[in-house]
Amino acid sequence: MMNIKGIIPMNRNIPIHFQGVPILLLLFILMIFVLTIGGCAAMAKIDHVNNISFSPDGKDILFDRFQGNLTNQIQVYNLATGELCAYQAPANETWGEARYSMDGRYVAFIIHPIKDEKIDYTGMQVAIMDPDGKNVRIVTHTPGPKALPSFSHDGKKIIYVMADTIRETGRTRRSGYDVYEVEIASGKETRLTWFRFFQISQPFYLPDDQQFIFTGDSPKRFPGIADDDHPAIERKQQELKRKYRDNQIFLMRAGEETIKPYIEYFSFSWNPMLSADGKRLFFMSHGIPETGGGWSQYYLYSPDGRHRCLTDIKATTVWSAAVSPRGDMLAATYDLSPDRQVYKVVIYGVDDGIRRDIVLPDKPIRIINGTP
Question: Please, what sign has the CA dihedral across residues 364, 368, 371, 372?
Answer without folding.
Answer: positive
